[in-house]
Design goal:
13 strands; about 25% strand; about 270 residues
Length: about 270
């Protein structure tokens, strides 16, 4: 996934700029203390936190959280609520509850659901439950901002003081998205305050099926894990809230004792 992450980050740059950025990624890898991954889904969303791995043989310690409550459900519905002046009110389950309360009291507000599908079609605006429109960038960036702030609060509970520049952010994106879609998400990351510019190496994009294949390989039984190696190719079926992605993932490129980021630089240099 790291190879795709970097290519998505700098797809509009020259080959040498890409190589230089990858070298920077390798150099900066040791400067991050934690990784926070945001899973922005069509139907539900959540986030995960993992500390930096000091021992290469150590298995990553990943904790997954619901951004709205402490329930056993690791995700909350992807729903966001704004008032009639387009100010953010609530996200997730709380957005649904508050919207229902407003309607019962004869009030109105803008509730948005399944708005990730608007991005698939590169619509300029998202459409609320009552038919009103709001900038899609605003709706998505406020979603990312809410989840990111909850993730930072959770991390602060665990470790105390959090230095935002020491966090590497990971944002999952569908495999079918074009470079235009991915660039939109990076701009949304800037609007959300997660990164300070669209080419920041502090946030990487991870294709959802590639992330899923890595996680399945890590969590599978040894007999199955032995099959998830080069030169094998596996099929990943990602059944989401609005789409079903079918993707083939190959394990052919990674050499023994080679990290994913070193793979990025080697493939780019070989291509050059």
């Amino acid at each position: 996934w790291a190879r795709r992450c970097v290519q998505d980050t700098v797809s509009t740059q020259s080959t040498w700029e890409i190589i230089n950025l990858n070298m920077a990624l390798l150099k900066e890898e040791g400067s991050f203390t934690h990784v926070i991954a945001i899973d922005f889904g069509t139907g539900a969303s959540g986030y995960g936190i993992a500390p930096k791995i000091l021992d290469p043989t150590q298995k990553p310690k990943i904790e997954v959280f619901n951004p709205c409550d402490e329930s056993d459900d690791q995700k909350t519905p992807t729903a966001i609520l704004f008032d009639n002046q387009f100010n953010f009110i609530a996200f997730g389950n709380q957005a649904l509850i508050k919207y229902a309360e407003l309607l019962d009291d004869g009030g109105t507000a803008l509730l948005f659901q399944t708005y990730k599908m608007h991005l698939l079609h590169m619509d300029k605006n998202a459409i609320s439950a009552d038919g009103r429109e709001l900038s899609l960038m605003t709706v998505i960036s406020q979603t990312l901002k809410f989840i990111a702030e909850k993730a930072l609060d959770k991390l602060a509970e665990q470790v105390g003081k959090v230095i935002p520049t020491k966090i590497r952010w990971l944002l999952t994106v569908p495999a079918l998205w074009s470079e235009e879609h991915k660039q939109f998400m990076r701009k949304a990351g800037v609007e959300a305050g997660i990164i300070d510019n669209i080419n920041s190496t502090q946030m990487l994009l991870c294709l959802e099926p590639e992330g899923a294949s890595i996680q399945c390989r890590e969590d599978s039984e040894e007999s199955l894990k032995a099959q998830l190696v080069k030169p094998n190719v596996v099929m990943v079926l990602d059944c989401g809230g609005g789409t079903v992605d079918i993707t083939a993932v190959s394990y052919t490129h990674l050499r023994a004792h080679e990290t994913s980021l070193h793979l990025v630089c080697r493939l780019l240099l070989e291509k050059k």
